[in-house]
Design goal:
Shape: elongated
Number of helices: 13
Radius of gyration: 22 Å
Strand order of the largest sheet: 4-3-5-6-7
Helix content: 40-55%
Strand content: 5-15%
Structural class: alpha/beta
Distance between the termini: 84 Å
Order of helices and strands: HHEEEHHEHEHHHHEHHEHH
Number of domains: 1
CATH superfamily: SGNH hydrolase
Number of strands: 7
CATH topology: Rossmann fold
């Protein structure tokens, strides 16, 4: 009996030591945990189908590498309040929909992406007064962006809507699906979550078992399941972009998809981490309206003519103010490359 008790005690001690080691080493920590935040389930949907912050609020976003105040405008976006255009207004109004990169996580309020773009715009197109408006919300994706535009931001009356697309949007599609996530009465429901997520949340040893023994990824899927869902991502994104185009026809704006790499993408040899991103670019080339593909520009400015690590936060993995400045410069240069200058821009 004593031997049994001793063995059980030793086993518990080994398991406890293993749990402590994994936690201290940071192994199997999720992205929020690595960034100084609590565990957050990837399968937890928002309370509303309109994905935005509480309007007219302020808070401080803090993580181990930086801390910046956030000012949220009337529309629930990290941006200044933008007036609706008057009947005689001649300014060109650009609305940029996207996720935390358009929101500019990692940069102070006065250096957000749309502010950077406005500066380059004034230099490139001094004859065309313009207003750059952010529609970026951390955690959003193109499907949430469509609902946000349709139900909350049309009053801004944009002439051009830029639609951010990056690698994280493919991850979001795997987890959240397409427009079918939006149920009646404003309810959002994601596909069925992982059944043992409670254990995964609390025990790093269980995370070790899930990833190393059962071979599941961070979204609790096998490689076969992940590949199957990714195959549907490009057709669904293409379908969604057509819905944006139709909305634009109804409300007098053009839609310009903006495809760009994240910092981690450029640390490899290619422009993008996902093959699906290349497939999406191929699909967009079939549209009658152009799109922006920023991979070559960002790689030239950040990698070939600079040091990539100077443009993003190592742990947080978002661009810093310097990185958003280059991203804004590439966007405006891309617009110029589409002959977006002179008295009459090519977009109606």
């Amino acid at each position: 009996m004593k031997k049994l008790g001793f063995r059980v005690g030793m086993l518990l001690l080994i398991l406890l030591s293993g749990e402590i080691f994994l936690r201290v080493a940071g192994w199997y920590s999720t992205y929020p945990e690595q960034n100084g935040q609590k565990y957050r389930s990837p399968y937890q949907p928002p309370q509303s189908h309109i994905y935005s912050y509480t309007p007219d609020t302020s808070f401080v976003y803090s993580c181990p590498e930086f801390s910046f105040p956030y000012q949220i405008n009337h529309d629930g976006i990290r941006d200044q309040n933008h007036p609706e255009p008057g009947s005689l207004s001649t300014e060109y109004r650009v609305l940029f929909l996207g996720d935390s990169f358009v929101e500019s996580q990692g940069a102070p309020q006065d250096s957000i992406l749309t502010t950077q773009m406005a500066g380059f715009w004034r230099d490139k197109f001094p004859q065309i007064p313009a207003r750059m408006m952010s529609g970026g919300v951390a955690g959003s994706d193109p499907w949430f962006g469509y609902i946000l535009l349709k139900e909350q931001l049309l009053h801004l009356k944009p002439n051009l809507v830029l639609l951010s697309i990056n690698q994280s949007d493919f991850e979001d599609f795997i987890l959240r699906g397409n427009m079918e996530r939006f149920l009646e009465n404003g309810i959002v429901k994601y596909p069925n979550p992982f059944g043992n997520e409670g254990l995964y949340h609390r025990l790093h040893l269980f995370r070790f078992i899930i990833h190393e023994i059962y071979g599941l990824d961070r979204n609790f899927q096998t490689s076969t399941e992940r590949k199957s869902r990714l195959q549907n991502a490009v057709p669904e994104l293409t379908k969604l972009i057509r819905a944006f185009d139709q909305l634009g026809l109804e409300h007098g704006f053009s839609v310009l998809p903006v495809v760009y790499p994240l910092p981690g993408d450029m640390q490899g040899e290619g422009e993008y981490y996902f093959t699906e991103t290349h497939l999406l670019v191929d699909s967009l080339q079939l549209r009658p309206v152009p799109f922006l593909e920023l991979g070559p520009c960002l790689r030239e400015k950040m990698v070939e003519n600079g040091v990539l690590e100077d443009y993003f936060w190592k742990i947080d993995r978002h661009y810093n103010a310097k990185g958003y400045r280059v991203l804004g410069e590439c966007i405006v240069e891309g617009l110029e490359g589409l002959n977006f200058y002179g008295e009459s821009p090519i977009f109606p």
